[in-house]
Amino acid sequence: MIYHILYTFHDQFSLLNVFRYITFRTAYASLTALLISLLLGPWLIDRLRHFQVGQYIRDEVPTNHHNKAGTPTMGGILVIVSILIPTILWADLTNLYIWLAIASLILFGIIGFIDDYLKVVRKTSLGLRAREKLLMQGLIGLGIVGALMILNHHGLYSTRMSVPFFKNFTPEMDLVVLGMSTFLPLILFTLIVIIGSSNAVNLTDGLDGLAPGLVIIASSALTVLTYVTGHATFATYLDLIKNTYASELTVFCGAMAGATLGFLWYNSHPAQIFMGDVGSMSLGGAIGTVAILIKQELLLLSIGGVFVLEALSVIAQVSSYKLRGKRILRMAPLHHHFELLGWKEPKVVVRFWILGLIFALFSLTTLKLR
Questions:
Q1: Each residue of 132-166: pLDDT tens digit?
Q2: Closest to 229 (Cα-Cα) out of 241, 219, 217
Q3: pTM of the model as a whole
Q4: Using CA atoms, how far apart are residues 36 and 293, in angstroms rounded to an integer?
Q5: What is the DSSP letter of 18?
Q6: DSSP states along 129-191
Q7: Residue 209 buriedness (CB in 10 A; 0-12 / 13-18 / 19+)
Q8: How far apart are CA 336 and CA 55, in angstroms?
């Protein structure tokens, strides 16, 4: 909005030329998101307490978590609003990639909101069933796939896959059968990335500040990746699948980092508010969508390495128990395992942040290791 209003007059006022720079708008989108999150946080916490929207704790979690019962939840609403407003203010709204990222953020947020709402109404830690979540996430994923196909038809999206460490190996995701494009690999791969990303962040959101801190790291890494992907010189130098439309996502990712940083102010230990599924699912869905749009789906495994470990720990624990009748961890997800080993909650969180930062930095180094 600000971009469209002010940049219109750049011919009359040369100073307004600064609004055409992605870096300038990204910086201000991040600051705007941070300020909105910080300023609206106390008001939202008060409103959630007034309406008694508190967290319900599962019986099977470590005992030190039971004193968190009643802490205001659904704070992800604050994160979503703090991302949307700066994005609308500072991004080029004629860019379809921006609207696809926004749609993913909102739609996955709606699923999380329904899940959180059911928990509050039922006064239990159980919301939507797993199959119900997967069905709704799958429908959103199919919608995103449909949008990608339309973009591809108009030459705005590549169906090739970028593979880390290999600059000349970019397999085509458009499977041709009997002379017809089926897009079957693209459909399956997109669903796995988006649904997996949303649920991985959701599973990680179990300790004060853990998921928000890791989202800040991941979104910051994606901010760098979106910028270099859309920059002709950098993309060519780094042998990336160049896409000038992807550069505008830098503003969105910057807003996501700023909004989550502001939320972390209130979610750090001891948390005054939890983001709930409305926050974790929306952020995870948005991260997955951005990775797909910039063709860094495989690198997302490294960028969100801690999220992946958390998700795999749950899969391994459930599989082991069903197949062998034994657990391989004291408790899943992984962060609870370390709690039961005697680590204090802040220590688990900070060490997971450090690990997340290592994963993100490693991911960025792979851009040149090709």
A1: 999 999 999 999 999 999 998 888 998 888 888 77
A2: 241
A3: 0.94
A4: 27
A5: G
A6: -HHHHHHHHHHHHHHHHHHHHHHHHTTSS--B--BTTBSS---B---EETTEE--HHHHHHHH
A7: buried
A8: 18
